[in-house]
Each structure stands twice: as C-alpha cells, then as structure tokens.
Specification:
mainly alpha; 2 domains
Length: 85
C-alpha cells in the first residue's frame, strides 16, 4: 500500500469546512458555498441539474461522437457571456 505522506490533521479548509489538501494562496475552494446575495445553493443545484439534463438529452438525441468538444464549447460560450454582463 503506497504512503502518500499527506497529514490528515489541521487540514480543514477555512472556506468549505471539509478536510482536503491545502489550496494555493488566493484560490477559491470549489466546495465553498456560493456567497451571492439573493442566491441560495439550492437555486444553483436546480439550474445546473436542468442544464445537465438538457445537454445530455441533446448529446444522446443527436448522437454526438465527441461530447468533450461540446462541453468545451459550452464552457467558452458561458465564460464569454459572463464577461460581457
């Protein structure tokens, strides 16, 4: 069994409260809760679940052979949209 030498004490993340390896300075923890006024975590979950269902439906119906390329395109479109709002 390999020894990864990762200490498991004192590693609780100050942003999410979970124990995981430390993040680089200035990086937001991906497990941290959203801190946007008027937006709850449940709102985000419902939205992302709807997006996931819609994307997967179209990938299946259109028999997309390389879904990773679609994900890259969607990510770029969302990033561009958010930069312009």
């Amino acid at each position: 069994m390999p020894n990864f030498d990762i200490p498991m004490t004192g590693m609780q993340c100050s942003q999410c409260g979970l124990m995981h390896p430390p993040l680089p300075q200035g990086v937001r923890c991906p497990n941290a809760k959203a801190n946007v006024e008027g937006l709850k975590d449940e709102d985000v979950r419902v939205f992302t679940a709807s997006m996931q269902n819609m994307i997967l439906y179209h990938l299946e119906v259109k028999k997309i052979k390389e879904p990773q390329n679609i994900f890259k395109d969607i990510t770029l479109m969302i990033a561009k949209y958010l930069e312009n709002i």
